[in-house]
Amino acid sequence: MNDGFSLALTAQIERSEQTLERVRRVLIQRLKVALPPEQIDLDAPLFGTGLGLDSVDAVELVIAIETEFGLNLPEGTAGPVQFRTVSSLLELILNPPAVALTAGRVSAAP
Question: What domains can be seen in the chain, in order of their start residue?
Answer without folding.
Answer: 3-100 (1.10.1200.10)
